[in-house]
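Researcher: Good morning. I'm working through a list of sequences from a screen, and I'd like to move beyond sequence-only analysis. For each chain I'm collecting a predicted structure so we can compare shapes side by side. This is the next one on the list. No need for commentary yet; just the structure.
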Amino acid sequence: MICPVCRNETINGMKITGFETLNWARCSCGVIFQEMIEEKTISNDYLEQYKQKKFYESSAQYPVDVYFPLIEEITFGRRLLEVDSLDLEVCNAAAKRGWITFATSEKELTGTSVWTDKFLNIKDAPETKFDCIYVYHWIEKLINGESLRKLHDWLNPGGVLFLATPDSHYVDEIGVVNFGHWFKENNIIFSRAAMKKELEKAMFEVVLLRGNPSNRFLKCNDMHIIARRLM
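Model: Good morning. Structure tokens for this chain:
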């Protein structure tokens, strides 16, 4: 099988059973990917992982408490886009800090401008771009790398991308069974090095990249990235 990130061939296959049995492959670059990479509808099993989270609202808003003080030092403006949000909790928390909030979502939130279409389906960028785009456990569900270029183009120069996605490092650190991201929706599980390289190719400067094992967020065993648009 050909790695969708580095394009090298790998024969390291894994059959993993969670809610269903899925065939995965692991590349020497650290990336893990499904044998069948295709766009998939978000299932009830996936959504249930959010619903069962204790202290859901505070967990969903926790990235704003932790990372937005740094983001606010890096960028001057206060226009935020939350991409394909399931709950708009981040927009809610950011608005309380003075951000002007936008989102692509099926939900509605008073004071937030919402596109009901998915981010990648919107063809025309807005005339006024964003100072921060928030992307939480979304990029691993895609089938190609065009998304990073579009995120870049929707940011103002010097604008900031916050990105969270499963981190393949934790497969070895805590074991396959405990990893917790073996959903059919997750086409590609990046390594930190591979994700950083993809961002740099898309003309981002990675300001912060850290593994997150903490359950204080909605998801753990993932990576959190703050990246700044270069040009």
